[in-house]
């Protein structure tokens, strides 16, 4: 069988989840073959999944690339220096980058943001560009760019300037940081853009379909959770529109060709610049990651697939890791493990999960489930091991 779980956010990594389930299954069925392949959906945890797959000695991950961890110094979302990680496979010359490592919302002091001590209109994506430059320095020719979890709404202006593109205001000075800075841009200069980008393939992992601007755009939809004051959302949205139009003119593109593209509003507009300027290819996050990790080879011949994440709900079924795993399980029965589920069992079964195991079913205290998930996951593993034959039995039409 194959255990291919995502992280339980804020509680356990994907590798920890899979390891605990494996221990529980083997405690009940010592002779079982249990391979482990931690997965992610292109957001936070994608670098960890790549590193964990490479580190595993499981035969299931033999087809996975040989990633190792690289670190570099970057600019954080509010200009603070920080160390960020990416995964790099020297043989394949492939890098896996999460923009959240450099400019993620999890790096921001929410108290300072809520008190007004931090101005969300100046949060910068420069660190994301520095991560890309570090990957190119390492020799990357292919870059997987995960766009989830950013603290920024600058249209990717910071990322571009870090990669050498000039962005200037009306008096010829470089614009300031964030969406506030990008809104003052009147000229761009592509002459200094890192020439290595032209020879690199950039795969953009995102399930966001929002355009750059408008009622469904980056500022209106995602700005509030990043600390944009309601009274400034229209201002930042308009500024992103002007910046996007400026970039399109500079590239010789038709008005709206890139700003209106589904996914342009991902990560505060990083989707726009990644697609329009860097030539990125937008792909559903989970499919991109499963391809990267060699999932199809890992699942071949598996008689049962176990997947999971912290919370099962309708969002799970819209491009999250467990849904992607179920869709590519190759006909093998799929069991889902989660902390808790908001879906009726019938809905989960209809979505492709033979059975759902919840931590709260064996420990009603949700706080303990969050605080001490691994012993509970081992107990779930034992439950799965105890009914393995029933779970793995395929219906006649699937045999």
TrEMBL record:
<dbReference type="Pfam" id="PF02595">
    <property type="entry name" value="Gly_kinase"/>
</dbReference>
<keyword id="KW-0418">Kinase</keyword>
<dbReference type="GO" id="GO:0016301">
    <property type="term" value="F:kinase activity"/>
</dbReference>
<protein>
    <submittedName>
        <fullName>Glycerate kinase</fullName>
    </submittedName>
</protein>
<dbReference type="InterPro" id="IPR036129">
    <property type="entry name" value="Glycerate_kinase_sf"/>
</dbReference>
<dbReference type="InterPro" id="IPR004381">
    <property type="entry name" value="Glycerate_kinase"/>
</dbReference>
<keyword id="KW-0808">Transferase</keyword>
<dbReference type="InterPro" id="IPR018197">
    <property type="entry name" value="Glycerate_kinase_RE-like"/>
</dbReference>
<comment type="similarity">
    <text>Belongs to the glycerate kinase type-1 family.</text>
</comment>
<dbReference type="InterPro" id="IPR018193">
    <property type="entry name" value="Glyc_kinase_flavodox-like_fold"/>
</dbReference>
């Amino acid at each position: 069988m194959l255990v291919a779980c995502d992280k339980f956010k804020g509680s356990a990594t994907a590798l920890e989840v899979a390891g605990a389930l494996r221990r529980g299954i083997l405690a009940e069925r010592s002779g079982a073959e249990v391979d482990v392949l931690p997965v992610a959906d292109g957001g936070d945890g994608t670098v960890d999944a790549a590193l964990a797959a490479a580190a595993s000695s499981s035969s299931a991950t033999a087809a996975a690339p040989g990633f190792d961890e690289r670190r570099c110094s970057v600019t954080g979302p509010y200009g603070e220096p920080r160390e960020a990680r990416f995964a790099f496979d020297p043989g394949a010359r492939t890098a896996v980058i999460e923009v959240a490592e450099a400019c993620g919302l999890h790096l921001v002091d929410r108290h300072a943001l809520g008190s007004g001590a931090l101005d969300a209109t100046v949060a910068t994506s420069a660190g994301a560009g520095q991560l890309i430059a570090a990957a190119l320095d390492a020799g990357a020719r292919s870059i997987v760019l995960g766009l989830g979890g950013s603290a920024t709404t600058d249209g990717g202006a910071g990322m571009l300037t870090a990669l050498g593109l000039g962005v200037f205001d009306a008096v010829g000075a470089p614009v300031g940081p964030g969406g506030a800075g990008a809104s003052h841009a009147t000229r761009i200069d592509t002459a200094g853009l890192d020439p290595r980008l032209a020879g690199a393939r950039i795969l953009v992992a995102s399930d966001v379909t929002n355009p750059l601007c408008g009622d469904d755009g980056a500022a209106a939809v995602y700005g509030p959770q990043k600390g944009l004051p309601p009274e400034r959302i229209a201002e930042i949205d308009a500024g992103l529109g002007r910046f996007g139009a400026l970039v399109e003119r500079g590239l010789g593109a038709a008005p709206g060709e890139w700003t209106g593209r589904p996914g342009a509003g991902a990560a505060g507009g990083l989707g726009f610049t990644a697609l329009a300027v860097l030539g990125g290819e937008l792909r559903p996050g989970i499919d991109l990651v499963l391809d990267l990790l060699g999932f199809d080879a890992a699942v071949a011949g598996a008689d049962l697939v176990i997947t999971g994440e912290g919370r099962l709900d309708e969002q799970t079924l819209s491009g999250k890791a467990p849904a992607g795993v179920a869709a590519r399980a190759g006909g093998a029965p799929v069991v889902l493990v989660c902390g808790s589920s908001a879906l009726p069992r019938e809905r989960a079964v209809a979505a492709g999960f033979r059975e759902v195991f919840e931590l709260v079913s064996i420990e009603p205290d949700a706080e303990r489930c969050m605080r001490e998930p691994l012993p509970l996951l081992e107990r779930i593993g034992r439950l799965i091991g105890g009914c393995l034959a029933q779970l793995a039995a395929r219906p006649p039409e699937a045999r």
